[in-house]
Amino acid sequence: MSQTKKVLVTGAAGFIGFHLSQKLCQQGFEVVGIDNLNDYYDPNLKKSRLDILKVLSTFSFHKIDLLEKERIDQLFETEKFHYVVNLAAQAGVRYSLVNPYAYIDANVTGFLNILEACRHYPVEHLVYASSSSVYGANSKMPFSVHHNVDHPVSLYAATKKSNELMAHTYSNLYNIPTTGLRFFTVYGPYGRPDMALFLFTKAILENRPIDVYNNGEMKRDFTYVDDIVEGVIKLLPHVASPSPSWDGNNPDAASSFAPYALYNIGNNNPVKLLDFISTLEQALGMEAQKNMMPIQDGDVPATFADVDDLIKDVGFKPATPLIEGIQKFVDWYREYYTK
Fold it and tell me: CATH 3.40.50.720: does it fit domain 6-185+223-268+304-320?
């Protein structure tokens, strides 16, 4: 791969954006990161991630919000990106019940500004984060990108589905190659403090009870962050192209007559929440006090990624075992919070 490819990573101070930026720099890419450093969760964690990135000679950072259209356009005009990876978003299913407008601003209007910039300052490939949440009320397992996903159960999911529809429109109208990646429950070091693994670890170490929703019967396809990053990097040069076999009488949801593609990136191995907690207890060497709770609004009982297309097209399948990934998170957490 060319040493000189320039990549824009939006949300670079975020959990996945940080890991991706680091890996891209290690692999010889030039990375420009942007982030608005908002306070949805502790900005100090974002600053810690940025401190690590800023020492890398091929990384540069701009504090920009996706809503700042003129600054986004100016950046595209100046930098002339080869690839764009849009990870900036308002994350979290539960917060979308409390502050819905934040999701429309960041995930819809913000994404539109990225699409417009790619239209006016062409790039080789736009890759963007979707989510396993788009599967919503679907119950046929494993979840396949070829399934219809028209029944979201949270506004967060609806905005991610909107991203896929918006990307398709721009691929069709302006021939912009776009690839949407549906991430499945990502975890690992420097993870988000609003995610279960972080919340559970903090509570257990502080001898506080943890809230276990759906009485622990929830199943999630937990995916280690390094596997997510590897999938993204393998797909960057795998530029989306029109499918010659696409048929409007029998439309396939994952491909198109336009340069558009969708992939799941998940571990392909759902784990029951109680088993996840048990693995965490093993890594911590401590037992959790559990508050058994009903399922929350906006949550789905299970997720399970079909990754056949990812394997077929780029020869990659996430495979980090849960015990290994959780141990790495616990080791990081203990070191980071005992500084």
Answer: yes
